[in-house]
Amino acid sequence: MVSEVSSNIETVLSSIEFKHTLHLYSSDVNKYSVQAPFLAAAKKGEWAVYVTNETPATVMREFERLDIKLSVIKPEELGRLTTTDRGLRVVVDAGSIDPSVLRRLRSRTREAIAKYIDHSKREKYLAESCKGCLILCTYDMGKLSPDLVKQLVASHDKLVLTTSDATILAAESLDRAGLAAESVQRFVKDELETIVLALVLREPMCGTDIIKTIHSKFNVLLSPGTIYPLLHDLEKKGLLKCEYGVKTKTYKPIEGAEEKIRKMLEEHVKASRFLSKFLQVTGASEKR
């Protein structure tokens, strides 16, 4: 079944409007969980196509909870998709496609299907022949060479990267700010407790809202496995309390802890300013 990870990254993959998106995931991530939100965003009456070497029964079982019209096809059947298939959502499960099988085929057969099996040739075919489709190409990073990763990134409109505890959508706003996605992700993880306290101090929030807010501000999507243990730890420290609703758990400062949290945040700001000034002065002196 699709695990709860799908809800964690739904705010990224379900809203993808780019024609050709590359999704790289680490080997410890459930590939079906990262594909589900993209498929689930199909509008009523739209068809979705899943390209894979997995059996159709396996794929249909994983997505049986989604209210979509889904067809499962083999990579060599990609020729069925054309530029007239506008609005069609296509997931290419590239992690299940092994280009090395081409070496075992006769030359005529190999030439006929190479554009569907070879990773680079397939991406070129999709870009040229399926312009009316919304395509999500998913790859297991552990199976890719650095050179192939560079080629894949260059041939797609957008890049989404998912590890076991975060999803990053390459963002133009961060690019303009000159911040590398890796640096932002590291900052968010290092300062997560402070970020969460600041958010909850402003207004009571559930874990899902915290995840969505951090994503909207930093373009880093954290998993519940990262957020909820931290919230429980802040409860044990006597800073937050959990209020149970019908379907959600809302976190807020416990009575009397607001002032303590404010002082913690103020101290953090002072320390950050001191560190920033130190780095600026030190960096300037090194240039002389």
Short structural summary:
This protein has 288 residues and is of the alpha/beta class. The protein has helices at residues 5-8, 10-13, 31-40, 56-62, 107-117, 119-129, 146-154, 172-177, 181-190, 192-202, 207-218, 224-236, 258-287, and strands at residues 20-25, 47-51, 69-73, 89-93, 134-140, 158-163, 166-169, 205-206, 220-222, 240-244, 249-253.
Architecture overview:
This protein is an alpha/beta fold and 288 residues long. It has two domains: 5-164, 3-Layer(aba) Sandwich (Rossmann fold); 179-287, Arc Repressor Mutant, subunit A, CATH 1.10.10. The chain is built from 13 helices and eleven strands. The chain has helices spanning 5-8, 10-13, 31-40, 56-62, 107-117, 119-129, 146-154, 172-177, 181-190, 192-202, 207-218, 224-236, 258-287; strands at 20-25, 47-51, 69-73, 89-93, 134-140, 158-163, 166-169, 205-206, 220-222, 240-244, 249-253. The strands form two sheets. The protein has an eight-stranded mixed beta sheet with strand order 3-2-4-5-1-6-7-9, with helices on both faces. Strands 8-11-10 form a three-stranded antiparallel beta sheet. α4 links the parallel β2 and β3. The radius of gyration is 23 Å and the shape is elongated. It starts with a helix and ends with a helix. Residues 1-17 and 171-177 have low confidence and may be disordered.
